[in-house]
Write a structure and sequence with these properties.
Number of domains: 1
Distance between the termini: 14 Å
Strand content: under 5%
Number of strands: 0
Structural class: mainly alpha
Shape: globular
Largest sheet: none
Number of helices: 15
Radius of gyration: 21 Å
Helix content: over 70%
Order of helices and strands: HHHHHHHHHHHHHHH
Length: 360
């Protein structure tokens, strides 16, 4: 998973060490998403625009595509964890789902609580489309179950659509893997590698359909099928690096992603394809395991999930306060954006150490 790591879910065997290059990718992608929201939402970005119009335009238009990095890494780590899982039955599957929800859901619920109070506070200072109305009980239940988009509820904070989709993709992969294990057991072949290979064969048609149909229609964007094409790319990458998939098949699917991105221009697919190529090159050159050896970068990678969850409520409050105090000049608005960024980092650090790290 993107911002969270599927490899840590029991009963999956943990990796003995982190891959610093993947932490680096998480760190960069999470920073881009934070700055996308800083440049896109609220009056501070509007007043700061004359100071850096080209940069703010680029951030507002393209930085959001960094989420594709998390989809590719999510698929990669799902394949990694399933390939090391124990024999699944109903009880272990329920346990895995429960632990998965606990790991991603509890920090999310903590951040959601902050977001509700942040929206209430922001409403006292400004009237803006980014501010959500007071939530209803049904809306809260839908958010807790990652069903808010499917049920048509307004999101209480930005970016949480990704968590819902990631959870759907994980459930889809886990369910198919469980079914593959059960089917292969009847024929005397119940190894994880065989089950994962069968899982990829089942997902491949869905992935291709996603690339050339579902991902082209916004009405499907609340469902996993819209994104399974890029998630599958990460799974293919994992199996290629584990030498359980030939380069020919991996390149063939990678080529389909490029073709889909050209047939109906979607730069987000190109970002996913580029991420896959970069990780593959890093693995082949040994960079994946040993670079960068930088404590700050690695730390930013570790807190990326918490930062992703908490930054928007902070941005919202600073924008609301800044609408009254800091929109007197372009320079003051720039100061407000930088203040929102710094406070978002601090909030991400607090959420990581106060909630996420304790749960892990």
């Amino acid at each position: 998973m993107p911002l969270t790591q599927v490899e840590a879910v029991n009963p999956v065997k943990r990796q003995t060490s982190r891959l610093p290059f993947l932490d680096f990718l998480r760190a960069i992608a999470s920073q881009l998403i934070v700055w996308h929201h800083l440049s896109f939402y609220g009056p501070l970005a509007e007043y700061a625009y004359p100071a850096a119009p080209v940069l703010l335009d680029w951030l507002a238009r393209y930085a959001r595509m960094a989420v594709q990095v998390f989809f590719v890494l999510g698929g990669y780590f799902t394949a990694h964890s399933l390939s090391r899982s124990k024999r699944l039955s109903t009880k272990p599957v329920v346990s895995i789902i429960s632990q998965r929800y606990r790991r991603i859901g509890l920090p999310y619920l903590a951040a959601l609580t902050v977001a509700i109070f942040a929206n209430a506070l922001a409403r006292r200072w400004m009237d803006h489309e980014a501010i959500s109305a007071s939530p209803t009980f049904g809306q809260l239940l839908a958010h807790a179950a990652f069903l808010h988009d499917i049920l048509g509820y307004e999101a209480l904070t930005a970016g949480i659509w990704y968590l819902a989709i990631d959870f759907q993709l994980f459930l889809l992969s886990l369910g198919l893997f469980w079914a593959a294990q059960s089917w292969l057991e009847r024929s005397g072949r119940a190894s994880n590698q065989d089950a994962l290979k069968l899982l990829l064969r089942c997902l491949a048609p869905l992935a291709v359909a996603s690339l050339f149909w579902f991902n082209r229609h916004a009405r499907y964007d609340a469902w996993a099928i819209y994104f399974v094409g890029t998630y599958f790319l990460g799974m293919v990458l994992h199996e290629l690096l584990e030498r359980r998939l030939t380069v020919t098949w991996a390149v063939a699917y990678w080529g389909l992603v490029i073709v889909a991105a050209v047939v109906d221009p979607r730069p987000r697919l190109l970002v996913a394809a580029a991420t896959t190529l970069i990780v593959y090159a890093a693995a082949r050159t040994g960079i994946l395991q040993r670079w960068p050896r930088n404590a700050v970068v690695n730390y930013f990678g570790r807190i990326s999930y918490s930062l992703f969850l908490i930054h928007f409520p902070v941005l919202l409050v600073i924008n609301a306060w800044g609408a009254v105090r800091l929109t007197t000049s372009t320079h003051m608005a720039v100061f407000g954006l930088l203040l929102a960024y710094v406070l978002s980092l601090l909030a991400g650090i607090l959420l990581y150490h106060g909630v996420e790290k304790r749960i892990r």
